[in-house]
Amino acid sequence: MRILLWHVHGSWTTSFVQGPHEYVLPVTPDRGPDGLGRARTWDWPASVRQVAPEDLPAEEVDLVLLQRPEELELAERWLGRRPGRDVPAVYLEHNTPLHGEPDVPDTRHPMAAQDAIPVVHVTGFNELFWDCAGAPTYVIDHGIVDPGHRYTGELAHAAVVVNDPVRRGRSVGTDLLPDVLQAGPVDVFGMRVDQLPQAPGLTSYEDFPQERMHTELARRRVYVHTARWTSLGLSLLEAMHLGMPVVALATTEAAVAVPTAAGVVTTRREVFRESVARFLADPALARETGARGREHVLEHYGLERFLQDWEDLLVKVAG
User: Fold this and answer.
1) Quick one: CATH architecture of 2-143+303-318?
2) Would you call 155 exposed, middle or buried from its count of C-beta atoms within 10 A (0-12, 13-18, 19+)?
């Protein structure tokens, strides 16, 4: 099967393109949001091809995987075929409902009230909260390319991964970093983390390649997931794959994705802070907790299950 999709979410796409198909990604000269092409910081197989928009009409595409509302128009204009009418399509929703009118939990999905294009959610929480108004919906939980058990925990630091922490603010829990700092040193990884205000004990590491970031994360004692209102962060699942203990807010899908044996999930600020401090102070507890978390995440968020779930749906939709 030849699948057209845009490079929107690099970590998710890394898992998806491990499947048995051919993957066509638009690429534009400026490599902007509508034409980012192949990844530069993830390792993708040769089955992923980047194609200029003007060359897409010659591609015999079997299915279009949409991830943003504007891709409906882009696909029709660049491919010359209307998704859901002239070519099978699915719409992948990565995100929790957006704030706006109407607000959560009444937020209407862009693909609501139609039956030509099924909507696939990456978490059960998202499917529950988006109002799709009768559109066919599915949940396919994340699956991760296993980076291996790399945990050493040699640095008594807390690790946080977040992109755009200043712009996204409370949604990703940027305001909680001072709470984490009360427990010990904090190392923040991600895009535009250099915009964070300087603070004693806080160190920013800007946009590392995935392989290097995994190695560096595994040297930290505990992974801290500060997000209040985002979909289930792949960095949280990656940290558990690495063998790290985790401390997370009990919000969105994290509330059910992290079992008690793998760390601490809470809505209490003091428990959040104290749990980070406890793992920083007890290397043995951190190591044992991380090992149990790795067992859980391999079983529930492994790549094989993820690819099989997608294969079942793709065959169903493409016929």
Assistant:
1) 3-Layer(aba) Sandwich (3.40)
2) middle
